[in-house]
Structures are given as structure tokens and as C-alpha cells.
UniProtKB/TrEMBL annotation:
This is Heat shock protein HslJ. It comes from Oceanicella actignis. Residues 49-147 form the DUF306 domain. Gene3D superfamilies: 2.40.128.270. It holds the Pfam family META. Keywords: Signal, Stress response. InterPro entries: DUF306_Meta_HslJ, HslJ-like_sf. Residues 1-26 form the signal peptide. PROSITE patterns: PROKAR_LIPOPROTEIN (PS51257).
Length: 153
């Protein structure tokens, strides 16, 4: 292929790109919805069933590994640092009890943290949601602090 032919192709490609860019710049700006139609900022959860929860701390110490938990219709489903966790829970006022946990049995470097998570869930006696945090307190185990996951998290 000759140099002149390559130059013509490059010039055509450049002209097409310039035309596309010009058309994009000339397009009107998208209209914004009126303030009343815009989605309101998500409200902070008020109940354990209002959110997907991310473990933030165990006994006030930051969690090292990602752990997600969902409490819905009396069931708890979580993905700990190492294993999937499923069980049931009962809630009456502030009283909160987790029963019948089933856990897969993989081991991992964060096994100690997962064991403390399981201990906190199995010995849970109360749960409180305040300021976007779920705090599960145990009678003889660690206190678990979860934060509500943001959309897409």
C-alpha cells in the first residue's frame, strides 16, 4: 500500500472523528429532573432487616476481612472471611438470638476472626440499630459491629 493511500485513509479517519466530536459537543445538555422527582438520599436503616451489613469491628477492633450479613424473615445469611454461614434468628424487642448455624468448613488465614464472628452470633443476646450501624451484643462472647453497605458495595 502506498504512502499516499495511507495518508488518505488517515485523513478520512481524522475527519470522521472530528465530525463525531463536533456532533457530540453540539448536542443539548441532558435535562435534570425537578428536585421533587430526584431520588431522596437513602435513609439510615432502623432494623436489622433494612440492609446488607458489613462487619466493621469485633469488640471495638476493626475487622480485617470482608464479611457480609443479611437478616431477613428470621434467617441469617452471611459470607464470612472463610465460609458461608446460614441460620435462623429470633428478635423480640431488643432481645436477639441466633440458632441453628450451619457453616461450610474451609480454613483460611482469617480463621480466628471468623471464629470470633461465629462466637458472637451464637452467644448474641441483643441487637440495636443506630446511625447506620447494627450492634450485636453477646452474653459471653464478643460484640459485633456492622455498618450498612452502600449501594453497589
Amino acid at each position: 500500500m502506498g504512502a499516499a493511500r495511507l495518508a488518505r485513509r488517515a485523513a478520512r479517519a481524522l475527519a470522521l472523528a472530528a465530525a463525531a466530536l463536533s456532533a457530540a459537543c453540539a448536542a443539548p445538555a441532558p435535562r435534570q429532573a425537578p428536585p421533587e422527582a430526584r431520588a431522596a438520599a437513602p435513609r439510615a436503616p432502623e432494623d436489622p432487616e433494612d440492609a446488607v451489613w458489613l462487619l466493621a469491628a469485633i469488640d471495638g477492633r476493626p475487622a480485617r476481612a470482608a464479611t457480609r450479613a443479611v437478616f431477613a424473615d428470621g434467617a441469617v445469611n452471611a459470607q464470612g472471611p472463610c465460609n458461608a454461614i446460614r441460620g435462623r434468628y429470633r428478635r423480640e424487642g431488643a432481645a436477639f438470638h441466633v440458632v441453628g448455624l450451619a457453616v461450610t468448613r474451609a480454613t483460611c488465614p482469617d480463621q480466628d476472626e471468623e471464629n470470633r464472628l461465629l462466637d458472637g452470633l451464637l452467644s448474641a443476646r441483643s441487637a440495636e440499630v443506630r446511625d447506620g450501624r447494627l450492634v450485636i451484643r453477646a452474653s459471653a462472647g464478643p460484640t459485633l459491629t456492622f455498618e450498612a453497605a452502600r449501594p453497589g458495595q
